[in-house]
Specification:
Blueprint (H helix, E strand, L loop, with lengths): L10 E8 L4 E9 L5 E12 L5 E11 L8 E3 L6 H8 L7
Antiparallel strand pairs: 1-2, 2-3, 3-4, 4-5
Length: about 100
Amino acid sequence: MRGLLPREIENVGRCAFNREAQIDHCDVKVIHPDGSILVGTTESRYSFDAHKTLKMIVTPKMITDTPFSDAPFDVFPVRCPEVAMWSILNEKGPAR
């Protein structure tokens, strides 16, 4: 297809999900546009909050060349609307 640019990959790594413990362990490398790199692991624990909403607690353990907090944080995953996904996948931009 002409005019479409290949997506740049910013995150690379590998994840393994432990079904019994409901934990996702990931080894990650995040390359930012400014050239800084985050390398390390994340551990995501899945549970439900008091209102029975799916909740994920992410604990990063990063080795990095830029300031980064390894403090755990909560995430509330939601389904991304299909129209948003199609818009992102079909996005055109200037050549880099």
